[in-house]
Amino acid sequence: MSNSVDPKYQSTAPDEPNIHEASDVIISSDTRRENRIPPGQTQTRKWPVLHYGHVPKIDLKSWRLQIDGLVDNPLTFTLEEFQSLPRVKVFSDFHCVTRWSRLGNLWEGVSVRHLMELVGVQDTARFVIATGYDSGWTTNLPLTDFDVEDALLVDRHDGVELDADHGGPVRLVVPRLYAWKSAKWLRRLTFLDDDQPGYWEQVGYHLHGDPWIVNPQNPDGERFRDDPGWQGERRE
């Protein structure tokens, strides 16, 4: 697709965080870094489309989001119910494990923290599994990265409705982790007391997936479980 017809191509430089300082937008802390590109990454102005299988065909009228596991009040939302919840906007960068980073994204949707309050996540919960509509694809996240101000369930990106190629109608976005942790075509969130590897994690991807984790032997982020970065520390 040429840049002239790609609606996601950034024809100008991406926004800087200070553009949103006086607005109602939550600014992701990693977006305030002097160097916003993690180790081993390259900036792109496109938004590449990557997934392991086909884009699922989702009937918007039958779409459901289920939230369960270690919660006091399991809930299921229709798309209309989801979109009627209080809204937030988050400005963040987006880092794919395939080594590209798209800076200056404006996400709109529902805060993860608000959903956690609605279902009453129990004190014993330590992890969450996100499940997609694409043949039950899953990814695991620790609550220390999920229960944060800038994590949200997204249905709009850069002012327009989130398209199916990029995970619409609703996807998870957790800016501080690699993008495979931001599950597309979301249909379920399950809170757990133990860490259960998801689809890519079962074949060797890192259980955590922080692009800013480094160590002297491998300053390249948490990509795979067998690399020295497994024992690294987050670069601030």
TrEMBL record:
Q: Where is the Oxidoreductase molybdopterin-binding domain?
A: 53-200
- In this chain, the stretch annotated as Disordered covers 1-43, 216-236
Which intervals of the chain form a coiled coil?
Answer: none
Polar residues biased stretches:
1-13
Q: Where is the composition biased (Basic and acidic residues)?
A: 220-236
Q: Which CDD domains match?
A: arch_bact_SO_family_Moco (cd02109)
InterPro entries from the UniProt entry: OxRdtase_Mopterin-bd_dom, OxRdtase_Mopterin-bd_sf
Write the protein's name: TMAO/DMSO reductase
Query: Which species expresses this protein natively?
Result: Thalassoglobus neptunius
Q: What is the lineage of its organism?
A: Bacteria, Pseudomonadati, Planctomycetota, Planctomycetia, Planctomycetales
